Structure formats: structure tokens, C-alpha cells
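Sequence only, no structure available. Ideas?
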Amino acid sequence: MRRAGWILVLLLGLLAAPTPTAENGTGDQSPGPGVLYRLEKGSTFQRGCFDPCECPIMEEVPVRGSFRLVPAGFDPLFEHFSVRNLLAYVSIAGQAKRVTGSGTYLIGGEFARQHRLVLDLEIGDEPVRRFDSGLQLGGAEFPAIVIAVSLNGQYCFDTVFDLRAAPWRRIRVEPDGVHWDAAPPGVVYDVVRGSLDTLRATGGDFSAATLGCAADDTAATSLLIEDDPPAGEAHWFVLREVGTGGDPSWDEGDAAQYLSRDPGIAASPSPCP
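Reply:
I predicted one. C-alpha cells follow.
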């Protein structure tokens, strides 16, 4: 089984000796405070009726975006974090809405693991409102975060963000090749490689710009580059995790990504199986 994993795009430009580096799919190289998180596939926005009211949920759409999780101290029972720089996008009634905000996350407990997420969010031009998960059992996935926040405790008419977030792994170029942070045990990786010049010339056509599968189900966390691009040209790499269930995807879930890469890479002459 495969799932959409840590989808990372790396741009490699070589004229003589390779020295550039890049982190994550947006090219964000600033360290910033805390850990950069992204919203994974399965994160949704829902607005409508929940139990015990008898009416269907009117909207349920994917959410994509990112935030930073910053340590904020401890108390006898819980570890505290600040949620900063949350930026996400959802499509509500056919219109793209920008979601921004911040909040807090805590995890711990005395006898059973518990966690709570509180977010102050602005959805489009709506006023800032507080979304709260309440203190609930869970958090075994941490440092991944799987939790839902709502305005009214998911009671009757409500607005709910069901979030699945995980740290955004780094990918970088070094003189000997491409390197990335390791995933949990049991995960392997697919990597495709392509021409940046062709990608730009075709307006983002991955079917034309993908040169081939550079690694298929590799357990390594690096890829040796034996052939450099011609002088003045550049190659890109996209990496996905394999082995944790779900559907494969080369997409990031980042709010900055406009269209899916999956159809183009699948239609290229040499995609990873």
C-alpha cells in the first residue's frame, strides 16, 4: 500500500560545481521558530449539521496548508506548543478561501494520553473565531497531529476542521547527490527526476518534463547523482513516501501548490511504478 507522503520538490541547478540547497516544496529555506508542519491528505473542512440534528453535512472539502509548531513550555501534566503562521486554503461554495490564524496545542496526561488544539482562525472575509477540539484522548501519532477543531463541539450546525498534520521533512542538495530526512521505520521512497527548463517552457507540464524514475521503493535516504544536467540547465526532483497505506501522490498538500502533479507524472514515459 502507498500513500501521499512527504512530497518534496527540489530544484537542482548546475553550472560547474553543485552547491545549492533547498528545503520543502515551496523552497522555504528560512529556519524560523519551531517545526514546519503541513496538512496532509485527509484534512477536511466541514460546515453543516452534525448529530443529533437530522440534516446532511452541506459541505466537506479538502484543506491544504501549513503552520509552525513552536515549543512553549511544560506543566506537571502537559507539554505546550504555540501554533504560528497557519496558512491554508479551502474551496467553499466553489470559491477559494484563504484561512489564516494561530493557536495552541498541548499533549500529555496523567493516566492516559490526551491532547487539545485551539485555533483562532479567519476564513476569507469572515471574522476571526475560536475553534477548539476540547481535551480528548489521543495523540499517539505525535509528532504527527490528528485532531478535529470546531466552533460548537460538533453539535447540530457547526463548522469543523478535521486536521491531519505532520512535520515537513527537509530535502537538500549536496555535492554527491540528493539527501532527505528519514521517515519512520518501514517507509521506503520513490523519486522522479525531470527537466526544469522543459517544465518552465511547457507551463508546468509534468508529462513532458519528467525524465524518469530515479529511485523506486528505496530504503535509502539519499540518491547519488552520477550525471549532471548540461551547463546552464537544471533538473528537479520530487520525492514521495511509500508503505504507510492509502493512495500514492506526488502532491504536497501545501497551500502554494496550484495544480496536481499526479496526472502529468503518471502520463510521462518513465514514471515510478
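The radius of gyration is 20 Å.
Hope that gets you unstuck.
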